[in-house]
Each structure stands twice: as C-alpha cells, then as structure tokens.
Specification:
This protein has about 270 residues and is mainly α. The protein folds into two domains: about 90 residues, no CATH class; about 140 residues, no CATH class. About 65% of the residues lie in helices and about 0% in strands.
C-alpha cells in the first residue's frame, strides 16, 4: 500500500498506548521489584481507574480496528495464541526461578488472540450467509448493516457484564473462569492480567469502527500536515512493531535496572 494512504493514525495510537504501557511497567519494576519507594501515584485512584484504563482501552480498540486490515484473521489469531502460550510459559518459568509470583495466565496477548479468533469465525460465517441470501436475492449486499448491529450488541453485553463479576466472585473456586475476570480465592500473584470482561467488548468496539470507517483500508487523514506525520513517526514505528516490542520490553527493562543495581547505582 502507498505509505501516503496507510492508516498511520492507527499505528501512532497503538504505539503511543504501548509507550505508556512500557512506562507503567517501568514504574512497577522500580516500586515493586526493586523496592524503591517512588512513583506512589501508581496506587492512586486516578491512575488505576482513569489513566491506565484509557491507554489500555485505546490499545485494545485499535487492535480491534486492525482486524479490518488482516487478510486472514483466523491464521493471525492462531499465531497470537501460540505467542501468548509461550509468553505464559516463560513467565511461569521466571516465577519459579526467581521465587517471585509473576505468572501471566491471561493478559492482552491472550485477549487479542480470542477476539481475533472470534471475529475471524464470524467473518467466515457472515460471508457464507451473504452468499446464501444473494442466491435468493441477487441485489443483496455482500455485507449488511446487520453485522454492525450484532457486533455492537455483543460489545455492549460484554462491557456491561463486567458488573456481574463482583456478584459471583465469591462463588468461584477455580482458575477456569480467570479469563473472564473471576479470580479464585487465594489466587497466586500475577505479573499482568487483562480479563475478557469488559476488555473484549472494547475490542469489538474497534471492530465496529473498522467496518464503518476503514472499509477502504486507508487513512482517514490523507492530507495531514507533514509536521504531524513527522511527529507521529516514532509512535508509528512502535505501533507497527508492537508485538515484538511488547514481548521484549520487560526483559530488557529488568536487565538494565538490575544491571544498574549490580553496579551500585541504586
């Protein structure tokens, strides 16, 4: 695709969100792994209930939008499943070796894998259903507005279903419902966690945006000033390489931080 038509705004938004996640993990490492009593705002309500959800939400929504640009969402989801499983295994190994509870049973990688897989299945069904209807009525459009309405209803149900987790949480005694947001009693410590309720709903909000605004798979801002494009380039690069950066950023941060501690910097 012509770089002038590429949806640079999606790469930039995803890159910015990833950058903020990395900063969040950095201050977590300082405060909880190194035991340095700084960044107390991480326990504040505005951070936990406004700032962090904002950037996580943008990342998840943009990831949903990007499904419109994928040639094969099922293949892409299987790749994400494998990467997420390997990541969980690596974090379990790190937890056992270090003695720290850093387990990752379900986080943003698992969430994106599930969302992409479900949308991949839905897309296949939708195309086959449209083909059947067009046999009856040749003027029937290949993709109807019913798809947007159905996905919107599903997204709303998932987002508001998050309210039920607190009601049924005390009855959950198993880890099987952890991906949904139900944590079992005496759950082990986790290094990262992002349940499907409500975040899978935001993923499908992104899917709706893509189906309405990005059918042409091109930027919505083709005439953006060059100054804006140049300022966005670092975040665009991060957005285009978000998976790799997400996988390696924490080991790199920890190597640097503990290396500096070994040298007596702190």
């Amino acid at each position: 695709m012509d770089n002038r038509k590429r949806a640079f705004e999606l790469d930039a938004l995803r890159g910015l969100s990833l950058f903020m996640m990395i900063l969040h993990h950095l201050i977590y490492d300082f405060r909880y792994l190194l035991g340095i009593n700084i960044f107390e705002f991480q326990e504040s309500n505005w951070f936990n209930y406004i700032l962090r959800p904002l950037f996580v939400g943008v990342f998840v929504v943009v990831s949903g939008i990007c499904c419109q640009f994928s040639r094969d969402n099922l293949k892409r989801s299987l790749k994400l499943f494998l990467i997420a499983a390997a990541f969980s295994a690596a974090m379990a190994f790190a937890s056992i070796v270090s003695g720290e509870e850093l387990y990752v049973f379900f986080n943003v990688l698992h969430l994106l894998a599930v969302g992409t897989f479900l949308y991949g299945l839905y897309s296949i069904w939708e195309i086959k259903d449209a083909q059947k209807r067009r046999k009856v009525n040749p003027d029937e459009p290949q993709i109807s507005v019913r798809g947007e309405v159905g996905i919107l209803i599903l997204a709303g149900i998932i987002i508001f279903a998050d309210q039920w987790t607190s009601i049924f949480a005390s009855a959950v005694k198993t880890y099987w419902f952890l991906p949904l947001g139900f944590l079992p009693e005496n759950c082990v410590g986790m290094g990262d966690y992002l349940p499907m309720l409500p975040w899978l709903g935001f993923f499908f909000v992104g899917v709706i945006i893509s189906r309405i605004g990005y059918r042409g798979k091109q930027t919505l801002f083709p005439d953006s000033p060059m100054a804006v494009r140049n300022a966005a380039k670092p975040f665009e690069w991060m957005g285009r390489n978000s998976l790799l950066i997400y996988l390696i950023h924490q080991p790199v941060l920890l190597a640097i931080l503990f290396g500096l501690r070994y040298l007596g910097v702190w």
